[in-house]
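Could you show me some protein's one-letter sequence and the numbers that encode its backbone in two labelled lines?

___
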Amino acid sequence: MKSKEAEDLENVHAAIGYMASLLLKSGEPMQAHRITALLKQHAEQTTDWALKIDYDHAVRLIAEKIK
């Protein structure tokens, strides 16, 4: 059984991967600020609270990595 933290991190990685795939499909450059912009946009638009939390967590994770 996975821990809650491991499952949360897996969801965050999936969210980042999904946004990266959207960028690839659109032909836009793969840049951290573009991924975070998409994550923020999707977080604002979703009605799924758990998904919003995952998107927000993903934004914070990326911000920590690019400092």
Remarks:
- The first helix runs from residue 4 to 26.
